[in-house]
Fold this protein.
Amino acid sequence: MKIHELKPAVGAKKKRKRVGRGNAAQGGTYATRGMKGQKSRSGASFYPGFEGGRTPLVKLIPKKRGFRSLKPTWEIVNVGKLESKFTKAGKVDKKKLAVAGLIKSVKSPAKLLGNGQITKKFEIIIDACSAGAKKAIEKAGGKVIVKKTEQPTAAENTQPSKDK
């Protein structure tokens, strides 16, 4: 087989229908556009979702109903809650916080805030910590390790939105 012998398959190439070239050409009179209406006029084009001039459904439905932020929601843990939830002092990480019920998910980022009193010696590994919380824990003899973790993606952050 040579290059000049190549041909497209039978039925692969089809001539387009030429409209508006008279009734003998099977596309005359209204040229497949119908009799009357906006679509039959020349230059007629409208955006997707156009509903003939009435307020489109997209504009009627408020944005907030279906909108979910792609940013992860930070879990907040207060120093006072650590004192009440953990009976023994020791190492506390996100897994232990989730088991204790202080955070909802291990995947979402957590931040330690300085609200409340603390007397126990904790070694806390967390994503972020306020200056007041760090000061309170170090005053009690504990230690805070701020662990820089990769932020979860929108697919991983599966917490439902609270505004309904």
About this structure: The longest strand covers residues 75-78. The radius of gyration is 33 Å. The CA atoms of residues 21 and 28 lie 6 Å apart.
